[in-house]
Design a protein that fits this description.
CATH class of one domain: Mainly Beta
Order of helices and strands: HEEEEE
Largest sheet: 5 strands, mixed, barrel
Strand order of the largest sheet: 1-2-3-5-4
CATH topology of one domain: OB fold (Dihydrolipoamide Acetyltransferase, E2P)
Mean pLDDT: 85
Low-confidence stretches: none
């Protein structure tokens, strides 16, 4: 009986090793596509940060009317080129601060 316990423990150890080996992720896997959104700069009073309002239209579930919904995003503006009213494209990135997860990718239209 003592011999069978040692063989059982060896089997469970090898199974555990196999499970760990299956969890290893290869570093060469391609990254997923980043989210991109277009919006209007509503504030640029912070240092290297702008607030971008993104408007989307959603159909009401019951009545079918289209409703405009606005969401504000904090975006990183390294060059400080964005002004209020500019139309910009933002791209998702790693968290840069507590509220900032987006970067300015490009300025589509400058405000007058």
């Amino acid at each position: 009986m003592a011999g069978s316990k040692t063989t059982d423990s060896k089997l469970t150890t090898s199974k555990a090793t196999e499970k760990v080996a299956n969890l290893v992720v290869t570093p060469q896997e391609p990254r997923g596509q980043r989210k991109r959104q277009d919006g209007v700069v509503v504030s640029n009073k912070m240092e290297k940060t702008v607030v971008v309002a993104v408007v989307r239209q959603v159909k009401h579930a019951l009545y079918g009317k289209f409703i405009r919904k606005t969401k504000k995003f904090y975006a990183h503006d390294e060059t400080k080129q964005c002004g209020v009213g500019d139309r910009v494209r933002i791209v998702e990135t790693r968290p840069l601060s507590k509220l900032k997860n987006w970067k300015i990718e490009s300025i589509l239209n400058k405000a007058d």
